[in-house]
Structure prediction request, 230 residues.
Amino acid sequence: MKECLMCKAPLRNEIRLSEIIRATPLINDPICQGCSNDFLDLADIPTCLGCGRKQTEGMSQPCRDCSRWQQSYPFNFSNCALYEYNQQMKDFMKQYKFNGDYYLRKVFSGQIHRQLKKCPDVIVPIPVGTDTMLTRGFNQVTGLLELVNYSNILKVKAKRKAVRQSEKNRRQRIELIQPFELIQSQKYLIENQSILLVDDVYTTGTTIRHAASLLYHAGATSVRGLTLAR
Ligand SMILES: [Zn+2]
Ligand SMILES: [Zn+2]
Prediction:
């Protein structure tokens, strides 16, 4: 019998209510209903139109973080997130990324494939640096995209310039450093194209917005983001 990829409980053939309501074809789920219930799906609840976070009481639209980003990075960018970065997602990421359980990509790769198979945009994963590749052995983002047609266009700059000390606070300094560069031979893939950037987690938005900025400068018509979690 197949086991839940997360808790190892035997998987019964469960038909989910959502599948009955949406009349979607039955999908062999990689995780059990219990583990699945602990992820908070952001698809059916109000979220920030800028970053995809769950809308909470009193939150502006877009949220304050996104308003700030619009001032410092005045280009069109919005992110859609599939799940909230709650405890269950944090546990998943810890196991997947930091413990390096590569098979855990399968918890979401099927769903991401179904979501993106009709996406007309050029799909660009956020890359990981050489150090991460050496220690982790894989890029967690391209793992999630294993069934999707994506284009490797970005790479992490080999030598990060030392952060210049200044009066600015740490976060402001970090935001000034562009961590990525284009793979020059792939540049033609983005000129006049709509791009969907994919990352695992949207935390401060710094990573994905740096990547978006670079793609706009290289001639992309539009850049949007999709992250597994926010
Ligand atoms: Zn489970
Ligand atoms: Zn936001």
Summary: Strands lie at 79-83, 122-125, 154-156, 180-182, 194-201, 222-229. The two ends are 33 Å apart (CA to CA). Residues 4, 6-7, 9, 31-32, 34-35 surround zinc ion (ligand 1) (CB under 6 Å). The first strand starts at residue 79 and ends at 83.
